[in-house]
Amino acid sequence: MVAAQIVGGIGVALGLSLSAWVVYKLSGSEPISGLAGTAGVLGAALLALPAAKAASTGGRRRGLALAYGSAVAGCLVAVAAIAASSWPGLLCGLVLMGGGSAGNLAARYSATDLSPPGHAARHLSLVVWSATIGSVLGPNLAEPAEAFGPPLGLHPWAGPFLLAAAVFAISLAVVSLGLRPDPLLLARRLATATGPAAHAEGRERTIRTAWQAIRASAAARRALAAIAVTHTAMVSIMSMTPVHLDHGGAGISVIGLVLSLHIAGMYALSPLVGWLADRIGRPAVLLIGMGVLLAAAALSGSAGEHGVAQITAGLVLLGVGWSCGLVAGSALLTESVPIERRPAVQGLSDLLMNICGAAGTVLAGAIVGGLSFGALAVATGIMVTLCAAPLAGMLTSRPRTG
C-alpha cells in the first residue's frame, strides 16, 4: 500500500500542478481555470462510493483498481482534450483523474483491515505519510515531462498527463498484483466463522445501510463530523492563502514555499500522530487537532498581508491539525462500525469530506471577497469549536494503549 500510495501521489500531484494553468491556456478565462480544482475534487467525491461498493463486494483490490483505473482513463482523456484544444474535454478528464485522489484516500483504510487491536491509527498513518514523497516529487516532474509529448506528435502540455497515466497504471499494477491476500476479505474470514453469510450481507450494502451503521454509533458520527470539519477548515484557509499573500506583493516562489511547508505539515508528522492516537486514544488526538487548527486560524488570520513568516507558521499548524483529524478520525470511524460495513461507511466519509472541502473553498472565496482573510479565520475557528465540544465527552472512556 505504501508503494501504491507513493506512485499514486506522484500522479495526483502532476495533475494538480498544471491542470488550472492548462485550462486557462485553452479557455483564456481565469474563472474557468478555477474549475480545474473543482473538477478534481468532484471526481474524487463521485468515485468514492463506487470504489467503496467494489471493495464491499470484491475486496480492497477491486475498489482500488476501479479508482486507479479511472485515473488512467482520465489522463488519456486529458491528453486527447489537449490535442483537440478542448477545455471542456480537459475538465471531463480531470473529473476521472479524481479517481487517483479517491484511491489514495481509500488506501489508508486498507492498512487497518488486519491491524492488531490498538495499532490501527499508526498503520493508517504510515500510508498517509507516504503521500509526502509523491506530493514533493510530482510537481518537480511536470516540466521535464513536457518532453514526452512532441515525439508522439502531441503538444508539450500533454506530456505531464502522459506521465501521470503511466504512474497511475503502475499503482494499478502494484495493487492488483501485490495486494494479496486481499486484506479486507481475509479480515472478514478471520472475524467470523460464518464467512459466507457475512460476505452476502456485504453484497447488499447501500448508502442507506452505511447511514444506518453511522447512526447506530455515536463514536462513528463524531468521527465523521471531525474528519469533515478538519478537512473543510484546512482547505478553506489554504485555498485563500495565495490570494492573501498576493495582495501583500508576495511572488510565486514565496507562495510556493509557504504551500510546500503546509503540505509537509499535513503529512510529515502523521506517523507520530498515529502512534499518539493509539497511545492516548482517538478522541484525545482529535481534540488536540482541533486546538492546533484554532491556533492556526488565529495565527494566520491575525497576520497582515506582509506577515509571511507568521502566515507560514499558521499554515504549517493548519497541516498538522488536519493530520490529527484525518488519522485519528479515520481510525475511530473504522473501529466504530462492523467490519462488513466498513468499506461503505469509509466511502461515504470520503464522499462527504470532499463535498465539504469543495463547499468550503467556495464559501471561503465569498468571505474573503466580501469581508477579509481575518473574517475567514474567525468563521473557521467557530466551526472547529462547535465540532470540538461533542468530542470532549468521549474522553471519559478508557484510552487505548498499544
Helices and strands, with pairings:
Elements: H1 2-27, H2 30-33, H3 35-58, H4 60-83, H5 87-110, H6 120-145, H7 158-178, H8 183-191, H9 195-203, H10 207-215, H11 218-247, H12 252-267, H13 270-280, H14 282-301, H15 308-335, H16 342-370, H17 373-392
Helix pairs in contact: 1-3, 1-5, 1-6, 1-7, 3-4, 3-5, 3-16, 4-5, 4-7, 5-6, 5-16, 6-7, 6-12, 6-13, 6-15, 8-9, 10-16, 11-12, 11-14, 11-15, 11-16, 11-17, 12-15, 13-14, 13-15, 14-15, 14-17, 16-17
Transmembrane segments: 35-52, 64-82, 157-179, 223-245, 251-277, 284-303, 309-333, 345-367, 373-395
GO cellular component, one term: plasma membrane
Membrane topology: Multi-pass membrane protein
Integer-rounded radius of gyration: 21 Å
Judging from the principal axes of the Cα atoms, what is the shape?
A: globular
Strand content: under 5%
Mean pLDDT: 84
Note poorly predicted spans.
193-204, 398-402
**What number of structural domains do the residues give?**
2
CATH topology of the largest domain: Growth Hormone, Chain: A
Q: Percent range for helical residues?
A: over 70%
CATH class of the largest domain: Mainly Alpha
Major sheet details? none
Structural class comes to: mainly alpha
Strand-and-helix sequence, N→C?
HHHHHHHHHHHHHHHHH
CATH superfamily of the largest domain: MFS general substrate transporter like domains
Distance between the termini: 22 Å
Number of strands: 0
Please give the CATH architecture of the largest domain: Up-down Bundle
SS element count, helices: 17
Subcellular location: Cell membrane
Protein name: MFS transporter
Keywords: Membrane, Transmembrane, Transmembrane helix
GO molecular function, one term: transmembrane transporter activity
